[in-house]
């Protein structure tokens, strides 16, 4: 079974040579991993049998896809990219036309804010000035992943207007909070998006929201409801390794979806752990 992790942040440390932007509204970045390299990720992948990963350059490092592009060039077949893209930047329309020509580039990930404007993601999702962007992504076959836990209802009009646009919802659409119920309080908004067949779920981060040790049984009911709403062929596995809690390991994250969820069939596991990503992101499985 091919295993693809569709969400890993690779980034250089915040240094004078490679400074991170620090505008208001932009995440300051993690302290647990001040930097995370391709080699560190490959070591983690090889240790637990993950075949390949999709790099998601983080908002705290700016609109900087260079480390991801370098990783793809150095380790072909092991990494691909859902890159950062500033739709408000001068020349954005022309740049988007050639976005998928970059080696390993599979799509775009939207989160936080951009350097050229104070506009935050929550405002950009219903900004009429960006209608060109959604239309172009649909026409060009550019999948868009969105960190939308706080603003899930704003995705419905986009999905309705652009039925051929692949929209990926990060992190199960959760929003954080003190309890598991808080984290999954977005479920009704999430389930409402299941009516749109090109909306997909990045659904592997259940352990990040759990308050239990492996097999994280407190999140099982929510994972089952999401599977029931979307189907396994619209779910993709992610671990978000740099954001894991102290008690949750990368090995446990993949093991949960391999054997820790008794309601999944073997065929469903195959879809979630790799097949959905291969088809939706147009990253074919190796021959």
Describe this protein's structure:
The protein has 287 residues and is of the alpha/beta class. The chain has one domain (4-280): Alpha-Beta Barrel (TIM Barrel), CATH 3.20.20. It has helices spanning 38-48, 66-74, 92-97, 121-124, 131-140, 155-161, 180-183, 187-192, 206-209, 220-230, 250-260, 266-280, and strands at 4-8, 52-55, 79-83, 105-110, 113-114, 117-120, 143-146, 167-169, 199-202, 235-236. Strands 1-2-3-4-7-8-9-10 form an eight-stranded parallel sheet. Strand 7 (143-146), helix 6 (155-161) and strand 8 (167-169) form a beta-alpha-beta unit. It is globular, with a radius of gyration of 18 Å.
Summarize the structure.
The chain is α/β, with parallel strands linked by helices and 287 residues long. The protein is 34% helix and 14% strand. The strands form 2 sheets. It has an 8-stranded parallel beta sheet with strand order 1-2-3-4-7-8-9-10. The chain has a two-stranded antiparallel ribbon with strand order 5-6.
